Amino acid sequence: MENKVKVLLIEDEKNICGFISKALEAQNYQVRTAYTGKDGLSQATSLCPDILLLDLGLPDIDGLEIITKIRAWSAMPIIVLSARTREDEKVKALDLGADDYITKPFGTSELLARIRTALRHSPLIQSRKTEPVYQAKDLKIDFLRRLVTRKGQEIHLTQNEYKILSLLAANSGKVITYDTIMSHVWGPYTDGNNRILRVNMANIRRKLETNPAAPEYIFTEVGIGYRMLEDESAW
Ligand code: CA
Fold it and tell me: What InterPro entries would the database entry show (predicted)?
């Protein structure tokens, strides 16, 4: 029997469900859909999907509550489908444990790319990656030796700059929120001010990017956090 990746889609708009199911089934995914939060939660526990696609605006239960409930027992990747333009909703979803978000309307290829990234980082699916290395374009990070090179030339970073870069690289392709980075580097008791992070990021970009104003490696998700160019060495 074929071992298909199981996707659970919780979304109350039936036409969006239809469009996503069709696109995913064409790529050999097995898709189940739920139109309500209640049905979604029950299918999540019975099906144990490999990945969850979750609409935040459901008729019965708030999508954020669903994230909290699922994170209480599962590390399955969760991608939020958000029609909401409010950035604080996205930040909340990420901080509650969602892996990524995609804003409606989105294209099929973007959704498929996000799903592949989320699955790659999933602790549930064994990665074939053996070398603890990040590589994309001319940039290479050797996590064991803490060595960062571009076009073979070593890039000298401060300790905090390296901490930020390696966090983003280890989670490449995913948005990491300002708060997550702040507490990773400066501890959980930092105030909500991102200035120190922005200063460090400016320095990292100056060292890393050919043109810091048009970055190739670290992208700003305005109001939310940073996303690093996806690791090409992953599998
Ligand atoms: Ca909805």
Answer: CheY-like_superfamily, OmpR/PhoB-type_DNA-bd, Sig_transdc_resp-reg_receiver, WalR-like, WH-like_DNA-bd_sf
Residue percentage of the chain with pLDDT more than 90: 61
Q: What is the pLDDT of residues 201-214, one digit of tens each?
A: 999 999 999 999 99
CA of 82 to the centre of ligand 1 (A): 8
Give me the mean pLDDT over the 189-200 stretch. 84
Distance of CA 75 from the midpoint of ligand 1 (Å):
24
Q: Where are the alpha helices (DSSP H) in 98-158?
A: 108-120
Q: How far is the CA of 203 from the centre of ligand 1 (A)?
A: 41
- Phi, psi (rounded to 5 degrees) for 157: -120, 155
β-sheet bridge partners, residue 101: 80
pLDDT tens-place string over residues 137-177:
999 998 877 899 999 999 999 988 998 998 899 889 989 99
- Rounded distance from Cα 83 to ligand 1 centre (Å): 8
From the list 130, 175, 169, 120, the residue with the least C-alpha distance to 148 is 169
Contact indicator for 53, 7 with CB cutoff of 8 Å: yes
Ligand 1 centroid–CA 57 distance in Å is: 4
Within 13 Å, how many C-alpha atoms sit on residue 51's CB side?
A: 26
Instruction: Please report, as a single letter, which amino acid is at residue 128.
Output: R
Is the distance from CB of 61 to CB of 10 less than 8 angstroms? no
pTM value is 0.67
Counting Cβ atoms within 10 Å, is residue 3 exposed (0-12), middle (13-18) or buried (19+)?
A: exposed
In sequence order, the β-bridge partners of residue 149 are 140, 154
